[in-house]
Amino acid sequence: MKVAVCGASGFAGAELVRICEVHPDFELVAVFADRSAGTSISESHPGLFGIDLAMLATEDLIPTVESFGIELVFLALPHGVSQRYVPGLLALGVMVVDLGADFRIKNPVLYEQWYGHQHERPELLSSAVYGLVEFNREELSGARFISAPGCYVTAATLAIKPLLEAGLVDSNPVVVDAASGVSGAGRSADLRYSYTSVQENFSAYGLRNHRHTVEMEVNTGATVLFTPHLAPMTRGILATCYMRATDLLMQMDRNEADALVASCYSDAFAGSIFVEATKIAPSTRMTYGSNRAFVYGCLDSRTGWVLGISALDNLLKGAAGQAVQAANVALGLPEDSGLNRFGVWP
Amino acid sequence: MKVAVCGASGFAGAELVRICEVHPDFELVAVFADRSAGTSISESHPGLFGIDLAMLATEDLIPTVESFGIELVFLALPHGVSQRYVPGLLALGVMVVDLGADFRIKNPVLYEQWYGHQHERPELLSSAVYGLVEFNREELSGARFISAPGCYVTAATLAIKPLLEAGLVDSNPVVVDAASGVSGAGRSADLRYSYTSVQENFSAYGLRNHRHTVEMEVNTGATVLFTPHLAPMTRGILATCYMRATDLLMQMDRNEADALVASCYSDAFAGSIFVEATKIAPSTRMTYGSNRAFVYGCLDSRTGWVLGISALDNLLKGAAGQAVQAANVALGLPEDSGLNRFGVWP
Amino acid sequence: MKVAVCGASGFAGAELVRICEVHPDFELVAVFADRSAGTSISESHPGLFGIDLAMLATEDLIPTVESFGIELVFLALPHGVSQRYVPGLLALGVMVVDLGADFRIKNPVLYEQWYGHQHERPELLSSAVYGLVEFNREELSGARFISAPGCYVTAATLAIKPLLEAGLVDSNPVVVDAASGVSGAGRSADLRYSYTSVQENFSAYGLRNHRHTVEMEVNTGATVLFTPHLAPMTRGILATCYMRATDLLMQMDRNEADALVASCYSDAFAGSIFVEATKIAPSTRMTYGSNRAFVYGCLDSRTGWVLGISALDNLLKGAAGQAVQAANVALGLPEDSGLNRFGVWP
Amino acid sequence: MKVAVCGASGFAGAELVRICEVHPDFELVAVFADRSAGTSISESHPGLFGIDLAMLATEDLIPTVESFGIELVFLALPHGVSQRYVPGLLALGVMVVDLGADFRIKNPVLYEQWYGHQHERPELLSSAVYGLVEFNREELSGARFISAPGCYVTAATLAIKPLLEAGLVDSNPVVVDAASGVSGAGRSADLRYSYTSVQENFSAYGLRNHRHTVEMEVNTGATVLFTPHLAPMTRGILATCYMRATDLLMQMDRNEADALVASCYSDAFAGSIFVEATKIAPSTRMTYGSNRAFVYGCLDSRTGWVLGISALDNLLKGAAGQAVQAANVALGLPEDSGLNRFGVWP
User: Fold this and answer.
1) ipTM strictly over 0.85?
2) CB contact under 8 A, C346 and A50
3) pTM for the complete prediction?
4) Each residue of C80-105: pLDDT tens digit?
5) What is the 3-state secondary structure of chain A?
6) The CATH number of B2-149+319-331 is which of 3.40.1190.20, 3.65.10.10, 3.40.50.720, 3.40.50.300?
């Protein structure tokens, strides 16, 4: 099917382009990117040397989709921008996968509270199917409009939701302490993300009010304090989640409790090819260039905390890979079409 | 005064050697290192090219100290080893600064519980003055035997102790989530610390039972869950500490509460040249090559958590710099003799 | 077809395993690795988590190949070791692709001169087909024993051979100045390759007598001074080759000369999907995780030097990818079976 | 004496500020930086936290110098800008150390040829003393206007000039192949120097016509092809220089020749505290945070090339450290005032 990628000059856009190129059922026919319109995709992304599509202006998206007969559009746009294009695309009957945050929160009041402005298209919120395949496979089947979750939220949700739903941990308080590679900040000429600023540097940011907190809370039902950190690396997210053990866990001995936590994760992801429970704490390097996420947990009976740790590649399972995975499920294709299970090691 | 460094083939040892070379009152006359005995210090540490001291075997420490007339010995030895040498050095009347963990915990029962074996010299525990200058300046004055705290514990203590003592946070639960550069693991030919293993990798380790947890608890009175992480960098520790706000803070509005947290840190470190309260969250890069630590805090009134964040260079304020700073105070020298306030930027 | 990988605990071995897993015509049935025999492949390579093959001892290679019915064996062994196994494998009629240097130099006198010891199986040298597909496609067709070139030699040969054969440069003197990521040194617990040794470090090594010099000279007919450097990165080789322009080039104006150099490369690699001539100097990042190499050249008419610059991923086009590419050609399979044209960006 | 730094928002500027802060004879009273005028120095350089000087606009330089009674000004300005300020400063009788390229080339014709525009102040060229202390110590004594050489030129000159002057190598051809950390490109919000662009990337740039080539040629008398490379690191330059051995060397056996090369370097830098000849090839890490440079050489008798390799920290011996070292010599101060011999290791 004919596919277009919007936001192709960004990093998630680059991954979408690469995946579409190798996807057996997708034919990439157009790429859009405002700041680089008119240049070739490989000028922005030298790793894509040889893909000679010229980037078009995003404002030409709708007419281009129509004239090219495009059937599926991936939107990897800055926050708030996809709201402008989704209605027109849906009106054309085109399938849309939005990688932005615009349609993730169904409650417009919560949206306004955390994003600081009113939603422009609240009537469309309910039609967007949330693209976290592992928890939403059935609803995604046949979906025509998918809102794919982002990197931090995916990592936190994978680690928290199974334990909370199984009654092993309390919903409050939950602390999500996460570290991300700098590609999560997007491709931008900003001194904060220059090599000399990032190298040999580790810092916390977005303290207390990071916008994605609300999505973690909606997904899991927990009350979350989320603290993201910037790590000196290109890719990868590790979320270390702290949850209070319930009596159910605290009454067990430590080995029993650990086994229960482990089996809770194993069961939750039993049917998943892209999320796996591990027996030791995962590292981000295991996920580099792969669409897989790994989850591990254990109880500290001395202090009553349960640790849930998840790792993923923020540009794949945390962005472009997740979007294609959800599209595959929606289209009834093999879930891993175009996607790598094994990344680049070392 | 004549000084010796034991454990000179390690990273803290290298920093001790460098500092002693530029310290106006120290004359470095001997270096000891078992695995590299017989080779020059600069073979282990090319950055010290030009310091041509040959490393001696540690077992020759006592007779060498005696024959050379050494007056001050820094011990940067693997855990458990300094217990063997301290009694002999003290018997000679030599001043000792131990960078290891052997004499940090005064209670031998706690020591055994967390370190897994009995202390060999419990009778000396009480004579070791704890070398965290910012909280122990008076006791250090004139001290002849100093036990200097390590990197994680220093970072956590600086962030937790002032708030807890001021009644702004509860002592339980406290979560310390910290990330360290790989030099914290020491200089060792271990695949886990090879470039290809560390690069582009972020992971948690030492879950639940890291030995330094007990020292954080003793220093602050808090009940701590400590989760260290390995970050892809050489130096630096960032500790993000999560503490529950007391009613005192929760009754204030957010700005008042933040101001109170800030002034609590400012007051605690008012007389300190090496610990400073910042107005925004610090980053490890600010401390690279410097003996300074930075601390910042704020309240999330929505969830009731207080965040305390500290940054330091694990080999300086977290090891060698701290040891020299404590020795300076003990000897009545200027506190910053031999030490950099400004590190290497960028 | 049933495939085995020897040397699976190394980095080239890891890439071979990954490629075999996704190769549509290969079924990986056994992996061998002396130092890790008995453990799972994913214990050595966490990025291969989920491939649960246990590594076997290399000494069991021949009987295992026989009992499992293995038809193709990749050998990624330390220098000199494959000589021991090749005769037995060939005797069984098994196809062999050797990634080591043992069978690359056909002249046993040269071999001894540069490698410092006699070749043990000189009678087999002539039967090994050299696996640089771009220059040897026809000879590789149907080959049953392939000796694949390594990373530095591939990079240098791609940049030098076309210009020299076209008479644009002299064969003497030629300088090859190259930089490699540390994965080129293999997976070893060696302080020289620890993170703290490699990070923020750039150095030359193997001055004057690097063994691969001779292979560059044999491949191209040039007299080469080769200086490798270690760069603070995991993957990638950039070879900057300096060659003296012949009169043919010097008589042209600069633009003409540059165009001739460019078309010389374009023509040489016109039929190649994995080597491409670029219009600007390539960078290693363009090749990360890909089997592609890029080549660029230009003339400095002022000094009479021609610059030829090539970039590739040392573990793929410089090792495992090249080996599979050669095997594909030998077997009559699509040349890119199992191989990525686009790597990981960013 | 009262000192000012112009260009304080850049990296060399940051190092100048740091060095001035610890220099026993300098009192830093003003800092200038156009793009950050009005902000504190530590907003641009968090590592300088605590130095609360506000940056002034460069256009106010002359009046500020006058009203503050500033006696020494360091200029770390973009190419071409110092020409505007030097005449005014000299007219005031102020001592000037220029870190830019404006006054390095004494011949205005050569200047125009390589820099592409006419020099605005050719009459001042001869009054600028070239600040490479190791070759110009006497001329620098008492100098009031110093033009300090940059990083690549210093590295290349240290490696080439001694051998050429001793008649061990020919002046033509000489190839300088060098790699630099990204701080050499300055502090700029440019996608090319973002973390994701630099990390895991090695590339050549400035092919054939890099402006600093001419300075290498003027300093040494050689005809140079210079190829700089960008390495994934913050600091450090390694220059690998290829020179043709003269008959003098070629007639010797290899060990004799190597010994002669080594003693040539040792002799050249016998009186220098900041340049040292090494017995093995140096690495950039040895110089990190230090004002030292290291030089090593050897002959490849097989091909007739002499290798000369030098390493330095581009921001110190290649910029700010060199400038202060030259000022120290000019002022009759100890040559190492304010400067580190030992950098940060690891």
Assistant:
1) yes
2) no
3) 0.98
4) 999 999 999 999 999 999 999 999 99
5) CEEEEECCCCHHHHHHHHHHHHCCCCEEEEEECCCCCCCEHHHHCHHHCCCCCEEECHHHHHHHHHHHCCCEEEECCCCCCHHHHHHHHHHCCCEEEECCCCCCCCCHHHHHHHHCCCCCCHHHHHHCEECCHHHHHHHHCCCCEEECCCHHHHHHHHHHHHHHHCCCEEEEEEEEEEEECHHHHCCCCCHHHEHHHHCCCCEECCCCCCCCHHHHHHHHCCCEEEEEEECCCCCCEEEEEEEEECHHHHCCCHHHHHHHHHHHHHHHCCCCCCEEECCCCCEHHHHCCCCCEEEEEEEECCCCEEEEEEEECCCCCCCHHHHHHHHHHHHCCCCCCCCCCCCCCC
6) 3.40.50.720
